[in-house]
Amino acid sequence: MIYLSQLLGNPVLDANGEKIGVVNDLGIATREVFPRVTSLAFQGPGKSPFMISWRKYVETFDDNEVRLAVPATDIRFSYLQPDEVLIARDLLNKQIVDTRGMRVVRVNDLKLSDTSSSQLRLLGAEVGMRGILRALSPAFERLVMRCSHALGHEIPEKIIAWNYMDLIDRDLSNVKLSVSHQTLDDLHPADVADIIEQLDPRLRGQVFAQLDDAQAAEAMAELDDDEMAAKIMGDMADADASRMLSEMDPDDAAELVGELDYERAEKLLRLMGINEQRAIRQLLGYKDDTAGRIMTSEFVSVSREATVADVAKIMRDLPDDFEPVNYIYLTDDNERLCGVVPVRRLFVSDPTDTLGKLAGDDDVLTAKPDDDQEDVAEDIAKYNLLAMPVVDENTGKILGIVTVDDALDVMEEEHEEDLRIAGGTSDSSDSDANSDDLMRFLRNQMWFFFWMVAAVLLALVLGPSTGVAVAFAAPVALVVAGEMIRYVTNFFLEYDADDEDAPSIGGFAVKSVAMGVLWAAIVMLVCAAGNGVVNGASEGLGAVVFELMRGFEAAAVAVVASFASAPVYLKVLRARDERGSDTSGLVLHVVALVVALAVFVAVACALTMPLLG
Questions:
Q1: Which of 168, 328, 469, 479 is the residue whose CA sits 20 to 30 A from 79?
Q2: pTM check: above 0.85
Q3: In what order do the strands lie in the sheet with 159-161?
Q4: Angle at 119 between CA 117 and CA 123, to 5 degrees
Q5: pLDDT tops 70 at residue 580
Q6: Is 189 within 8 Å of 247 (Cβ atoms)?
Q7: How far apart are the first and last CA of the chain?
Q8: Angular region, 393: left φ>0, alpha ψ -120 to 50, beta rest
Q9: DSSP string, 542-557
């Protein structure tokens, strides 16, 4: 086995042992399960690039040199063929799709296998740490491996076999990959969406260019990031974007169009068919975050007098891309919703039975178009429904249905929003793990940095010794400020403003102040104990403890101020939620720490400076 990093830069010697260049790249034929190396690219005198046939001219190779079978004068240069790629140029340090692991990875090295004395084949890509270490230095890789082995922590190879690799940036070579590959075209739309979200922005459009309209529409609907979806569509040609919208379910298309600017949205809608355009415009007429905005207009409704055989014929005539049908909705003579029949009941019924007979007298659970989408999603989960009809409040006519997959999306969005407000994160992917760890550290230990700021400020104002002594109590004020934010966000997430059983804002304020006073009382008990120490201490020690007590007194005031401001944070959260704006728990945490720090420093200076004078 040999790696590309061990070959690059090695000298190329002709049959006479004369150096004619250094290895620059290797070409492979992509139409094989494990592609063989077909070309050797090397850099000659004056950095001139050359390419020769590997099979014709390479006699031997190792990790030190490549030796040719002929003298330099007998070499005939060649060119890259249409089905070939240069692996250092087109694969190394590039993003590829691991179609088995459904993820995007970066190629750190390439593993090769010598099937004969001169023949090389590409086995796969090294996407782990060892490829990075080997690229730095093979000796360094060996040293790290020995150290890790001694510590009992092995660093394994992470090889993705060639037949599980799919090139993204295909414009480099216009290569038709091996038919044995499981390419993006074969993946589920949800997996394609996951891959797209992991890609560099410049490559996302190239992935969509590989998909047909139906595949692109399904993948676009699966994207979790609406802004990303709008950006991808914004970069597409008008005709392509309009065709893709036409392939999407009306509710998904309406959600995406709602993210575009008005002129772009209108242009795309005008290019669509009349029926698709009408369905999307109807949904766009409803407010954001309502049942009307997430419902789909694709459902099956029949008269109560229709028979099972009639419904079977209707369903046979539905287009292939019609929304999955789980319920048949029944209407009366005035087209008002009057019943519902699960599709599974049709299979055990006589073809001549009427739908009205199968429906019985059971009440139909419905939603109104202006109902909050979260409430509708919770009802779907509560009653174990696969879909809930949305009816006009005045006419009783069915307008559309909210399906269980849309309900799940709503609940996931609400959960992510709750996590953001609470200062958490919903992304647990490997690619973002380091970022999440950093944010978690900053969020949980941020008080430490503010403590350092408090110490510096007080040292500048009160003098080094006094300032540091007073700042000793600052963590009390800062940590309690963080706890106050957790208290506020937990209350916000638990109670909606319009909940009947939710405590009033006045009651919340009273409870918050009471909690602040309780915390402050605990801090003052420490002060009282400290005063006892002062009375029995030596003069020098007594002065230090006295300064410490001023710090704890300032911390007590800051604690009360933090909890007294809790209703303000709650009002801000509710106001932003009413406007549909996201709120970062991290930002709230920072604001609370800034306020606590300002109060602590101001009170500490007010208590200590007169004594110093």
A1: 168
A2: no
A3: 2-3, 109-114, 120-126, 159-161
A4: 120
A5: no
A6: no
A7: 79
A8: alpha
A9: HHHHHHHHHHHHHHHH
* Measured CA angle at 188 (ends 187, 191), to 5 deg: 85
Residue pair 477/558 in contact by the 8 Å Cβ criterion: yes
**Cβ contacts of 427 within 8 Å, gap of 6 or more:** 436
CB atoms within 10 A of CB 360: 8
177 pLDDT higher than 50? no
State the pLDDT confidence band at 483, using cuts at 50, 70 and 90.
confident
Q: How many CA atoms lie within 13 A of 383 on its CB side?
A: 13
Strand, coil or helix: what is 126? strand
Confidence tier at 340 by pLDDT (50, 70, 90):
very high
Give the C-alpha separation, 308 to 342, whole Å: 12
Place of tokens 């996590």: 419
Q: What would the two tokens of residue 191 be? A: 């997996």
**511/521 Cα distance (integer angstroms):** 15
With CA atoms as reference, report the closest residue to 195 among 168, 227, 230: 168
Q: Is the predicted pLDDT of residue 535 greater than 80, yes or no? A: no
Q: Which residue has the tokens 């795309």?
A: 268
Contact (Cβ atoms closer than 8 angstroms) between residue 333 and residue 356: no
Contact 28, 37 (CB under 8 A): yes
Q: What angle do CA 245, 251, 252 make, to 5 degrees?
A: 50
Q: Is the pLDDT of residue 435 over 70?
A: no
Is residue 355 classed exposed, middle or buried when 0-12, 13-18 and 19+ CB atoms within 10 A define those classes? Answer: buried
Structure tokens at 219: 């993948």
Q: What is the dihedral of CA 247, 252, 257, 259, to 10 degrees?
A: -140
Contact by Cβ (8 Å): 592, 584? no
For every residue of 307-363, DSSP letters joined together read: BHHHHHHHHHTS-TTSPPP-EEEEE-TT-BEEEEEEHHHHTTS-TT-BHHHHHTTPP
Does residue 555 contact residue 600 with C-beta atoms inside 8 Å? yes
Q: Which two tokens stand for residue 372?
A: 């909050």
> How far is residue 9 from each of residues 93, 143, 526, measured CA to CA in Å?
17, 22, 69
For 351-368, how does the pLDDT look when each residue is reduced to its tens digit (9 = 90+)?
999 998 888 766 789 999
